[in-house]
Amino acid sequence: MLKEWKLSAAAPEAVAFAKELGVTKSLANILWNRGICTKEAAEVFLHPEKQPFYDPLLMKDMDKAVARIIAAIDGEEKIVVYGDYDVDGMTATTLLVHNLRALGAKVDFYIPHREKEGYGFNLTALQGVADDGAKLLVSVDCGIASVDDVAAMAGKLDIIVTDHHLPGEQLPPALAVVNPHREDCPYPDKNLAGVGVAFKLCQALWQEMHGQDYTQDLEIVALGTVADIVPLLGENRKIVAAGLKRMRKSSFAGMRALVEVSDIRDEELNTGHVGFRLAPRLNAAGRIGSARKGVELLLTKDAAEAESLAMELDMLNSQRQTIEQEILAKAEAELKGEDVNNMPAIVVAGENWNPGVIGIVASRLVDKYYKPTIVFSKQADGVCKGSCRSIDGLHMYEALKACKEHILQFGGHSQAAGLSVAESELKAFKEAFEAVAEATLTPEDYVPKVKVEMELAPEEITFDLIDELAKLEPFGMKNPKPLFGVREIRGMAPQVIGKEGQHLRFQVGSAKAPVTALFWNRSDYAGIINSEVIDMVYSPAVNEWQGNCSLQCMVDSIAPANGERIFPEREQLVDIYKFLYQIQQQEDYIPYTAEELTVDFCKRGQHISLYTMSLGLRIFQELSLLRMDMEENCYYLPKASGRMDLESSPTYRRHR
């Protein structure tokens, strides 16, 4: 899928700004284009450790929450922390339980089962907590939407809600509702994760009970903050920068075991390690097992138990990957035969798909098709549980809100959400959601964008530049790793690498000074590298191997250069069709990937780009001249009848 470059402007102020900060013009330009335009702002951004934490009591209802918790500790009342089953919820639960115990509280925790109970509060669980003798329940990372459940427990259980999800029209009638997104909350930083809000509660408790500034346990806060993909600005940036440094030598035995089982060899961890190694293993507990395992791992003080639990989560993660691939294949099968290119949104459903994995499947479909996507699991009780992922341009929570007459319950953020729909309402919901997407999104919104800081040839990368860029870490939402672009280049010496041959390594730059480029999970581009002129977006990096350091490009995306972006007119479409017909005559089937077909076409003496071939295949599919064999995973040509009416193809009409 082609990504449109959003090339940052060269800020005229960058030269003077660079001198003022004592940095290179390149770094100054990046800072300026990210809205960091004063020396003071740059100092805080480049040195987040210098930024003080805001007073936690600025958060609305924090004083009420602290007073009630202190009373419970003094009165030796049983407190239960009620968390969510994702990494944010697990880390928030761990953090609050750990600190309440340190403050002398009698405390236990409860996390609902994702599949059996679903997200947030449920009345059965709340009643069970009260029946077990708890007098106070404190939620973390959930509860903001549980108005009726909280009301039903009035007089039976005191409830404090701490959350960071967007509130609905009505707040739950809890003793305290601590959420920076409350309209009446003056707290200056609205971007905290659920674990971040729990951290502010811990800060307030230590401050009020012992007059201490609490800045411990930041590795736990950082883990949940990165995993929940909140903006890494403000307090989140300070938390993550400090927390990453503590992970490998954490005082939490479970954190150390998690790092070890994830096979992270770098001395200091980065946000990529957290997002792609640590968080998936913890998440696996909540997705296909019990999230309690994740909290037990992080809370245990026994190194042997930590090692055992970490290995168990590692195995669960492997199972999760297998289940994910199976559901993704089924979801793709649901879409085969559909005109996905002209759909405003993707809504697919399957019988008893694992509800803990469908969110990842939705993300994979967004990556492939770049459309708002909802994946539903049809349950035996007639309720369809769905997980949503969006694209820029469509606020998922607001879109669901517009369809609420068809929804049993929903909640979430602008880019991700969850919902439940009665199976009898599924068709009506799908139509309503597609109508909202169609009315909201423009054709431009369906083109994925990639922000490119500047054009930079690979041979211009230096070790000094990479050292400068490192000052922008930690990278994450709202502070992405800087990407650079180079146009009109040819790759050299492509090699397929990886245990399963899934990755691609090739050379770029000049023949005298080649630079290695790595493109993860795109070994199918090997033939394209040899045959096409390309535009490439990448991040510069250092490869360390056996004590030697070399420069390399980590490829974000490859696109045909402008001269390769040729739309296939009738004559070329005829050539492509004849080529496909010859393959079918010789092999009885046609390979499923456009990449294979592009390389094969070029080998027969005529040059064609992947761009042109892909459009030709799409046009033939729209005209029903090319179909997919779902069982054999290949194309085939049905018997042709009459002349091609190209105007019947939406893709061809749009081009015309």
From TrEMBL:
Transmembrane segment boundaries: none
Keyword tags: Exonuclease, Hydrolase, Nuclease
Keyword Hydrolase: yes
Domain DHHA1: from-to ranges: 344-437
Domain RecJ OB positions: 453-556
Gene Ontology terms for molecular function: 5'-3' exonuclease activity; nucleic acid binding
GO biological process, one term: DNA repair
SUPFAM superfamilies membership: DHH phosphoesterases (SSF64182)
Segments forming domain DDH: 78-225
Family per similarity comment: Belongs to the RecJ family.
Protein name: Single-stranded-DNA-specific exonuclease RecJ
